[in-house]
User: Which sequence fits this backbone?
């Protein structure tokens, strides 16, 4: 059998609960009303009959003697006196009452009369001696309200199926409107899952309940998914584009080498191949490292260490600049921070490589380190060619190069992207100030304590 949908199950459940609730409440009300009516009738019947009991005695001549206070009808109660054999001795029973009713001492009973009415009957045995006595019977017409209750029971039984149907329809509409946002969520997820429309959002109007939160969570997840799909597409196209150039140069140079007529031509072709292969290798290495960082396979190993020492050593260990550039440092001693030593070294190395590559011949590189209000400020400044004002943000994008010829075709366009990635992983960021033909200053700022859950999503 096909499984019922959650909507149908909920509808059935609500309808069943409604029915149980209504039936329960009706049954409770009817029982209570019945018992109130019966109790009132009984107490009236009993008190009247008992009051009459004391007014009956056996006279010396054997006849019954009724005092003045004895009343055959009082407050709607008939009192009748029967002999021990059941013969009516005194009193006038209602005409509609059936004959030959048996006696039950002290038991309240409802009796159906012939004229569609009913009576409560209460008998008492009144003994005069061991063997002598009479039956005193009290009769009272069942009050109107009791009849109304019985009618109510009948009507309720008739109405119950109708109520069930109405409850079911109401419950279905309620469940359907409650589930509408879920349907929207499912439709959006399906559209995205089938890759039809990544820009699709649920877009529920703001609501503060769980479904609203669910929709917002899904929307932000879809947002991230779209961004990551776009980034992946961009990455694949950029990477293949960047690799295509050196590969075609290598292939062309292989042809040149094969047909070289002089050893010099051969040497020239081989050295071009060597350069391009090194460029490809650097590109692939950087790409791999960046992807691992993004995917989290390369985890940042945060530890508390002396950053001043690291920066000092790295600057000292820089190879002699072929362009005559000198490095000057202004490092605040004993700056301790929580960072990944390898990644921080990579960040500084990338900035130093750029400062060397785009710096002025025989110029300077200034490296500064400061700790200010729990923030670390690491600066690398050069007096080189600078960056055009309208390119300041683009330079941090993957594969972006202001002009590849400026780096002598040595750059990959990945260095600054990685610098930003590492800064973000440390809970900070990198900024740049630059003036064309005058120099650039890159400043990395991050907190010196541990920062949790830094992801690369915002890049
Ligand atoms: P690349 O491998 O090309 O150096 P980067 O991501 O490190 O890639 O830098 C991106 C671009 O930013 C470079 O192509 C360069 O034009 C510019 N740039 C980076 N650093 C500097 C600098 N210190 N001075 C001038 N331009 C720079």
Assistant:
């Amino acid at each position: 059998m096909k499984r019922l949908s959650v909507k149908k199950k909920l509808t059935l459940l609500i309808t069943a609960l409604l029915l149980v609730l209504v039936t329960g409440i009706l049954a409770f009300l009817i029982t209570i009303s019945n018992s109130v009516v019966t109790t009132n009738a009984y107490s009236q019947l009993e008190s009247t009959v008992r009051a009459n009991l004391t007014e009956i005695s056996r006279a010396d001549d054997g006849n019954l003697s009724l005092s003045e206070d004895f009343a055959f009808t009082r407050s709607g109660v008939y009192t009748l006196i029967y002999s021990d054999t059941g013969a009516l001795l005194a009193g006038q029973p209602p005409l509609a009452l059936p004959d030959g009713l048996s006696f039950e001492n002290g038991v309240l009973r409802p009796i159906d009369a012939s004229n569609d009415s009913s009576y409560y009957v209460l008998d008492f045995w009144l003994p005069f001696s061991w063997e002598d006595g009479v039956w005193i019977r009290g009769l009272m017409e069942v009050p109107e309200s009791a009849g109304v209750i019985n009618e109510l029971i009948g009507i309720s039984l008739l109405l119950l199926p109708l109520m069930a149907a109405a409850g079911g329809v109401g419950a279905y509409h309620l469940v359907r409107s409650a589930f509408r946002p879920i349907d929207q969520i499912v439709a959006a997820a399906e559209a995205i899952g089938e890759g039809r429309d990544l820009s699709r959002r649920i877009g529920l109007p703001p609501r503060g309940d769980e479904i609203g939160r669910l929709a917002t969570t899904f929307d932000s997840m879809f947002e991230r998914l779209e961004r990551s799909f776009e980034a992946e597409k961009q990455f694949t196209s950029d990477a293949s584009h960047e690799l295509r150039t050196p590969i075609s140069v290598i292939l062309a140079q292989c042809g040149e080498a094969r047909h070289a007529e002089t050893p010099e031509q051969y040497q020239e072709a081989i050295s071009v191949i060597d350069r391009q292969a090194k460029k490809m290798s650097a590109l692939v290495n950087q790409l791999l490292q960046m992807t691992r960082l993004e995917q989290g396979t390369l985890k940042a190993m945060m530890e508390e260490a002396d950053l001043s020492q690291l920066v000092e050593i790295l600057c000292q260990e820089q190879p002699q600049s072929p362009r005559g550039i000198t490095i000057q440092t202004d490092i605040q001693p004993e700056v301790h921070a929580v960072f990944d030593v390898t990644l921080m070294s990579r960040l500084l190395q990338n900035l130093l490589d750029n400062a060397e590559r785009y710096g002025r011949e025989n110029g300077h590189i200034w490296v500064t380190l400061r700790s200010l209000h729990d923030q670390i400020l690491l600066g690398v400044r050069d007096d080189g060619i600078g960056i055009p004002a309208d390119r300041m943000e683009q330079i941090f994008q993957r594969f972006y190069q202001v002009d590849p010829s400026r780096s002598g075709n040595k750059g990959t366009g990945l260095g600054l992207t990685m610098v930003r990635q590492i800064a973000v992983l440390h809970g900070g960021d990198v900024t740049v100030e630059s003036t064309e033909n005058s120099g650039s200053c890159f400043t990395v700022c991050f907190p010196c304590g541990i920062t949790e859950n830094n992801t690369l999503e915002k890049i």
